[in-house]
Amino acid sequence: MEKIPILRMGRLLLVTIQVDLYDRLAESLEADLVQMINKTGARGVLIDISAVSIIDSFMGRIIGNIAAMSKILDAETVVVGMQPAVAITLVELGLPLSGVFSALNVEKGMELLRSKLTNMERNVDGSDDGSAE
To answer: Fewer CB atoms near the end CB (10 Å): N or C, the chain?
Structure first.
């Protein structure tokens, strides 16, 4: 069975889907990605779906599941490169992908993830706790 590569870029993981996802490949990606987050301590996941032209409710749920599991493991998820037809299909299927952030392309997605990580670190450090002195 083929695998979708998961690349580590510092504290981030990059997944570029270049093939049509069938059910077993999508489930394999979900499991592999969660294991990689756990193994590496990644804080962000960027999923590039620019080559995906068709999506169904199962694939939409897989993306939502990845985001939910990533969040539990303290990582944010950003999906980039969504084709208009894919966005329309997700909305028509009633799959809002809650917990999934989106950006136009990989560059903007990386900026978004880095910004979110910086904000998370500020909040953990207590330097941005909202209290007045």
So the answer is: C
